Every structure is written in structure tokens, then in C-alpha cells.
Amino acid sequence: MAGVVCFNHGKESGPWGSKIQRLAAVATAAGYQVLSPDYRGVDRVEDRVERLLSALPARCGELILVGSSMGAYVAAAASPLCRPDGLFLLAPAVYLPGYPSDALVPDAARIVVVHGWHDEVVPVDNALRFCRQHALPLLLVDGDHRLMAPLESICRQFRLFLAAG
């Protein structure tokens, strides 16, 4: 087995939404075990980080954290504590009220941020600022906050991301 991919859903979604299901199929096909903690009813970022850390297996080989929106913020916030091999961040909720982003320092051997040009929740300028601040690669796609329209392209990028490990 290649390792574990842990998905982190956003504030308004659930652990096995359609986007996570599609990305989980990519991870499973690449030989990864997949996890997706349920954060429904957990509103504070700090509590979600704690839940994420407690959901991770003690030994798993390669660890990849994937998150969408608030889940991307949670994955990035947890990364200095669990030191994943990779972070795949979709529309990260950065520089929004309640998300202290100036102190957020993502920590992984490889990191990719994917953001929609038409994101109505997290402005694209927030993603640009975050990626510029941390010198991260940013893939801008023709999509909104949910990133469903470009999902096939995102799955291809995720497949390449996993293969690079």
C-alpha cells in the first residue's frame, strides 16, 4: 500500500460528498487507503484540527492531506503537527474572518493549491496572496467555490500529485 490519503470536507459539506468520492477513487486506484473524518457539527477550526489529528493512524507510510475550503485550512493548520508528505488544497478558506491566516504555515514535502477563478466564497486574490506568501504552486481553474465543473481536470492533477510521491 502506498499510504493514506485523508480528506477534509468543508464547513457546509460532509465526509463523503461527490468531490471527495471522485478524488477518493483516484487515491484508491493509486493504492492508497482513504479516510474522511466527519466534521459536521464541529464549527471551530481548532476542534477540527484536533479531530483530524486523532483520526490519523499512528503508522501509515506516506500521508497525504486533502482539504476543500475550511477542510483545506484545517489540513494546512494540522500539517506542522503531523508532517504529511503532501497537501492538496482545494479553495482554501484563507484570509477570511475566523481563519487566522497570517500565522498559517503549511508544512509538507509537496503542496499544490487549486482554486476557482469564479470562487464566490474565497476570493481568488486570497489564494494568490496565500500562495505568494508561501511560494506555493497554484492551479487556477474555470470554476466556482465548489469546483465541480473542473472536477475531471482536478482529478487528473491529483493523480499526477500522488504519482510524484
What does this entry look like structurally?
- Helix 1 (18-29) runs parallel beside helix 5.
- Strand 1 (3-8), helix 1 (18-29) and strand 2 form a beta-alpha-beta unit.
- The mean pLDDT is 96.
- This protein has one domain: Rossmann fold (3-Layer(aba) Sandwich), CATH 3.40.50.
- Helices cover 36% and strands 20% of the residues.
- It has a six-stranded parallel beta sheet, with helices on both faces.
- It has 165 residues and is of the alpha/beta class.
- It contains five helices and six strands; from the N terminus they run βαβαβαββαβα.
Categorize the overall geometry: globular
DSSP helix fraction: 25-40%
Average pLDDT rating: 96
The secondary-structure element order is EHEHEHEEHEH
Oligomer: single chain
Radius of gyration: 14 Å
* CATH fold call: Rossmann fold
Main β sheet profile: 6 strands, parallel
CATH architecture: 3-Layer(aba) Sandwich
Distance between the termini: 13 Å
Which sequence of strands runs across the widest sheet?
A: 2-1-3-4-5-6
- Based on DSSP secondary structure assignment, what is the total number of beta strands? 6
CATH class: Alpha Beta
What proportion strand?
A: 15-25%
Query: In CATH, what is the homologous superfamily?
Result: Alpha/Beta hydrolase fold, catalytic domain
Count the domains: 1
User: Treating each run of at least 4 consecutive H or I residues as one helix, how many helices?
Assistant: 5
- The stretches of 5 or more residues where confidence is low (pLDDT under 50) are none
What is the SS-derived class? alpha/beta
